[in-house]
Amino acid sequence: MNVIVIPCEIAQDALFTIIPCVLLGIYASLMTGHIHLAVVYGLLFITSVLYWTNTDWENMMYIDMTLAIIILSLKTYIAINHFTPLFIYLWIITLFIMGVSFMLNREILMRRLYPMDKINNSIVGGLIDTYCPINYTEIETKERTDAYRSSTQMHMITMHLIASLVFVSGLYVSYNILEKSINVTETSE
To answer: Which of 15, 83, 150, 156 is deepest in the core (most CB within 10 A)?
Structure first.
């Protein structure tokens, strides 16, 4: 895997979604009793701030990615076991969107940053090359900066915002329905 280093001045823009999304995730986790998820979110908060303010720190990137995968796994477990059927379905669609957008975003950025002879072949990359060829951008040009910026923005929207909003909405709706059904059961007894 080629490591792509987003310039720090562009990468720091990701903090505009990381900070509120992680804090919202911690709050929602604590309010619904998922302390383990809140703890991992806290760790992710630390690693994300450290990585996105210094993208040259490759080991921190891998720690951050590992924590993000752990959180996605915990969220999926919670969604399957506690969400209403509609939000289970929405969460599965969200995971699919996240996976596809991550692969596409990375492959598009790779094609803009490296000449074709330096890029490893992949199925997704082959489809991009066939149906929507992407041009290499020269170093220290506006096009290169725009490539980094658009890739970071796409990451922010698909990985941070959409995932956080769907999950927290699922928690809120599912736990409100659960709480109402418990209250109805208690009053009928």
So the answer is: 83
